[in-house]
Amino acid sequence: MLRWEQLDALWDVVRDGGKDWYIYEVGHGVPKTPLSGDALAAEIKTIDTFLRAQHDYDYCGIVYADKPSAPTLIKVYGSKNLGASCGSSGSKTWPRWIFSLEKPEAVGAKLDDKDKPVWWKTFTFKRPK
After folding, report:
1. 7, 63 in Cβ contact below 8 A?
2. Which of 16, 24, 51, 82 could be a cystine partner for 98, CB 3.0 to 4.6 Å?
3. 29-42 burial: b if 16+ Cβ within 10 Å, else e
4. Residue 79: its pLDDT value, please?
């Protein structure tokens, strides 16, 4: 999603599509159940608010969907941890969140408090139980 308007449209498709979505915060436990309805809308709002606060540019460019009009997989990158996403640095840059219609598998490294990025301290992400 290069533009914020494209991200808005993607969120509308996800929220209004009537599907259950797994939202996996990379480095944390894989979600056991998908979200839908109000719970899904609340998570989208939380993540969207965070992205806009942390990525203060007139363009988005940090959210990728396999098919924006009918997505099944969405990768949301943290703007402060983009690194060399093209892979030229030799290290893998993981998305911050993965939205998936299928139950995801764990990727990336598990984050301990000492390994969390600095922005983590300013953000409270409430996961559904």
Report:
1. yes
2. 24
3. eebeebbeeeebee
4. 74
Q: Is residue 128 part of a domain?
A: no
CB neighbours (10 Å) of residue 50? 20
Report the candidate in 79, 95, 94, 100 with the shortest Cα–Cα distance to residue 14: 100
Take residue 31 and report the two structure tokens written for it.
């979600």
129 located within any domain: no
Q: Is the pTM of this model over 0.85?
A: no
- Cα–chain center distance at 118: 18
Residues 29/108, Cβ–Cβ less than 8 Å: no
Domains held by the chain: number: 1
Distance of CA 48 to the CA centre of its chain: 9
How much is the pLDDT for 92?
76
What residues contact residue 102 under an 8 Å CB cut-off, 6+ apart? 22, 72
Does some domain include residue 127?
A: no
What residues make up the domain containing 45?
A: 4-120
